[in-house]
Amino acid sequence: MIPGILERLDAGEVVVGDGGYVLQLERRGYVKAGHWTPEAAVEHPEAVRQLEREFLRAGADVIQTFTFYCSEDKLELSGNVSNITGAQINNAACDLAREVADEGGALVAGGVSQTPLYVKKGSENEVKAIFKKQLDDFLKKDIDFFMVEYFEYVGEAVWAVEVMKTGGKPVGATLCISPDGDREGVPPGECAVRLVKAGADIVGINCHLDPLTCVRTVKLMKEGLEKAGLKAHLMVQPLGFHTPECNIGGYVSLPEYPFALETRIITRWDVHKYAREAYNAGIRYIGGCCGFEPYHIRAISEELAEERGFLPPASTKHSLWASTLETHTKPWVKARAGRQYWENLLPASGRPKCPSMATPTDGRP
């Protein structure tokens, strides 16, 4: 038996999460932008399996089920999958995640996300019924723990946690909010308190904003928990793009979203800095969300290799801090071998007519 998620975190271990699925699979031709629904788990399981394997090889300790936006109301709203049910997607995604996780001793997290019904003012019972359907699917597959992720409103996340907690397994809960709070202005510290009181064992932030901003928000959650005398493990799975504009609507409010985000992609060296910042903040579940590719997850694993005690398999094809450039025949490239060069590099975009930042829309409902 491999240790469970709480056993690992209770022991002070670093748990490396996986990366983003919907944006990566959209770019590869398996997810439709705008809808972002996960029917590829049924239609193209080989594509989902391959990406999961790349995250595992990069050092991920957890493989999340590809069930983002898999609530029945979201699937119906998208109109994308009239012939595939949410249960079919959940079942296929659980099987894929378990298959890959078992190849490397990883855990499987069954994930639920926010619903269209909540913002349409659906009742608590109606919204909870949607989460209950997903919970029942996950329990049939005996996943290792539950992940409540990508919630803009803490109220809905609390309902999701309350439902998932009835499954008798650990529950992690992450909000996609800024340091200013959720979409209704609830501060991060108060959000964390509500989630823990609802039953969450792990709390944190995912998606919407860049890594260092997300770490800053988790720090505020930690402060809130300490003031309330509550304890929980902390996690962070941020966006893989630079968002210095830091607005409440997140990256979806940027004019480049979703088809021109490439110039904002974080480098592997940015991820080294992020992983260290997160670790120093007391966060022990460290992963990525949209924009995080397998090489970004490998960078987390490499930065925290000493703390974890090993390097991931993917590091056999990667030299730490570009040390293999020492053998390059061009002296100016050879001079780039080493940590100092890459840590201090200010990458150019190659777009002289482009601004360094954009003006986001307000992002409020």
UniProtKB/TrEMBL annotation:
Entry-linked Gene3D superfamilies: Homocysteine-binding-like domain
Annotated InterPro entries: BHMT, BHMT-like, HCY_dom, HCY_dom_sf
PROSITE patterns: HCY (PS50970)
Transmembrane segments: none
Pathway per the UniProt entry: Amino-acid biosynthesis; L-methionine biosynthesis via de novo pathway; L-methionine from L-homocysteine (BhmT route): step 1/1
Cofactor note: Binds 1 zinc ion per subunit.
Pfam families per UniProt: S-methyl_trans
Keyword field contains Metal-binding: yes
Record-listed Zn(2+) binding positions: C207, C289, C290
Record carries keyword Transferase: yes
Cofactors named for this entry: Zn(2+)
Keywords of this entry: Metal-binding, Methyltransferase, Transferase, Zinc
Single GO cellular component term: cytosol
Span of domain Hcy-binding: 3-304
GO biological process, one term: methylation
GO MF annotation list: betaine-homocysteine S-methyltransferase activity; zinc ion binding
PANTHER family to which the protein is assigned, alphabetical: BETAINE--HOMOCYSTEINE S-METHYLTRANSFERASE 1, HCY-BINDING DOMAIN-CONTAINING PROTEIN
Function: Involved in the regulation of homocysteine metabolism.
Subunit and interaction comment: Homotetramer.
Name the UniProt record assigns to this protein: Betaine--homocysteine S-methyltransferase 1-like
Lineage, uppermost ranks: Eukaryota, Metazoa, Chordata, Craniata, Vertebrata
